[in-house]
Amino acid sequence: MDLQLDGKVALVTGSSKGIGEAVAKGLAQEGAIVLVHGRDRAQATRVEQQIRSRDGQAYVVTGDLTVDEDVQALIAEGVALAGSIDIVVNNAGGSGAGEDWSNTAPGSWASVYDRNVLAAVRVITALLPKMRAAKWGRIINIASLAGMMPPAGNPDYSAAKAAMLAMTTSLAKAVAADGLTVNAVSPGTIHSAKLDMKFREVGAQQGVAVDAPWEEVEQAVLPLFAQVPVGRVGTLEEIADAICFLASPRASYITGSNIRLDGGMLPTA
Fold it and tell me: Which residues does residue 36 pair with via DSSP β-bridges, in sequence order?
């Protein structure tokens, strides 16, 4: 399927590693011009160079999304490098210090909310006027299954991701008549470098060799972490594929949605 992304410009926040990196590479492979964002220019440049080595188009923009001036500057730089920004994937954020209800503090909640929700709001409000004027735009917010199925720990993170889901629905309604779509993607258990390391540590405690094939580690350890009906963790490429489709003209009738990529973990009844 041709996703018709050739020449579209996409800003992917927090794309110097992890999910954001996979999304940036996926969009570039589909023909989009990608603005790779991070706070560490060297890391972002590594992703940019890998995209260019595969004949993709990419540029690096850096800045702290919790600082208004940084957001304005990186968007201005991105427009100067690539032209109008048609697509934004609000991926930057992350959890806090791993607090639970025995030690959580309001300051931690404020910090996590700023890095996740307000960072996305800063980027969106900076891009919205030109998207509306162009009568086309795609806004995709990376939430989390934790926003709908919060665990006992990290309550600040779950609350922030739940807020992103509400924000997505509100914005989708506000801009639906302007040719813009706004959707959220909520990953469940995904095979990131961090998860791979954790699974191998736990697997070693279960007698699985640290350097065992991933499938063996996954089979032994996944049931200890989560009950995933499909019986495996998701991949970064699967997240990227879903986002590429939502970013494309092919998905013009999908807005205000939350696409769960959780292998069926969330109870539906």
Answer: 12, 60
